[in-house]
Amino acid sequence: FDVNNKRYFYIVEPEKKYPSMAMLTKRGRIKTAVNFYGNNCSGLDSVKLSHKNIDLSIRLYRIYE
């Protein structure tokens, strides 16, 4: 997908209901990667955001009550 001159790639596996990875690229280089974790029964339960140029990684987890 192209949005505001930025290219986003979504990797979808046929057997999964949700995408497993998304990437933001600029000039052919990966800038940011997002990994989605979970299963088809409970849906997404965690996300990992990582920046490729700086040492930055953020992990987000679903809170169960």
Short description:
The protein is mostly beta strands. It has no helices and six strands.
Give the H and E element order.
Answer: EEEEEE
Q: What's the gyration radius in Å?
A: 13 Å
Helix content: under 10%
Shape: globular
* Structural class category: mainly beta
Describe the largest sheet: 6 strands, antiparallel
First-residue to last-residue Cα separation? 35 Å
Number of strands: 6
> Unreliable segments (pLDDT under 50, ≥5 consecutive)?
none
Q: DSSP strand (E) fraction? A: over 45%
Summed over residues and divided by their number, the pLDDT gives a mean of 78
Count of helix runs: 0
Strand order of the largest sheet: 1-2-3-4-5-6
Can you walk me through this structure?
Strands 1-2-3-4-5-6 form a six-stranded antiparallel beta sheet, with no helix packed on it. It is built from no helices and six strands. It is mainly beta. The chain starts with a strand and ends with a strand.
What tags apply to this protein structure?
65 residues; 6 strands
Map the helices and strands:
Blueprint: E1 2-3, E2 6-11, E3 21-26, E4 29-39, E5 43-51, E6 56-61
Antiparallel strand pairs: 1-2, 2-3, 3-4, 4-5, 5-6
